[in-house]
Amino acid sequence: MEFGASRAGLLAAALCLACVTGPAAAKAERIYLCSGYGCVYKKSMNLGAAAKQRLAAIMAGGRSSASAERSAISKAVRYFETLATQTMGVRDDAKSGPGGARVYGQMDCIDESRNTRTLLTYLQRHGLLHHHTVRRNAARGFFIDIRYPHATAVVRAKDGRDWAIDSWYEPAGGAPDIMQLSEWKKRGVRGER
Question: Which candidate among 100, 154, 187, 193 keeps its CA 20 to 30 Å from the CA of 138?
Answer without folding.
Answer: 100
